[in-house]
């Protein structure tokens, strides 16, 4: 690696070849790797995670809204069915009352006739 850097510097004509030859590249590699990991951790904590959280919250809000609409529609359907059952039960009650009244009127003398 050191020879590649020296060759690259020499090809540009810059007088940094001596400077590059004196850099401890083995230690620089560890520092660079540590710096890259540090940057990655910072970028993840500062940008990636907040963006993921915001995206998740937006999608969750949309799902909640959609689900809320389904639940409201379900409750409205239940209310309509409940009203229909109530109307049917009242009609059944009246039909039974009329049938009992008719039976009582037709029956001979046991019920006060």
**Residues in helices, as a percent range:** over 70%
Please state the structural category: mainly alpha
Query: What percentage of amino acids are in beta strands?
Result: under 5%
Largest sheet: none
The SSE order reads: HHH
Tally the structural domains: 1
Total number of helical segments? Answer: 3
Low-confidence stretches: none
Termini separation comes to: 120 Å
Total strands: the figure is 0
Silhouette: rod-shaped
- What's the rounded overall pLDDT mean? 82
Query: How large is the radius of gyration?
Result: 43 Å
Task: Walk me through the structure.
The chain has 113 residues and is mainly α. The protein has one domain. 88% of the residues lie in helices and 0% in strands. The protein is built from three helices and no strands. The longest helix is centred in the middle third of the chain and has 82 residues. It starts with a helix and ends in a 7-residue tail after the last helix. The mean pLDDT is 82.
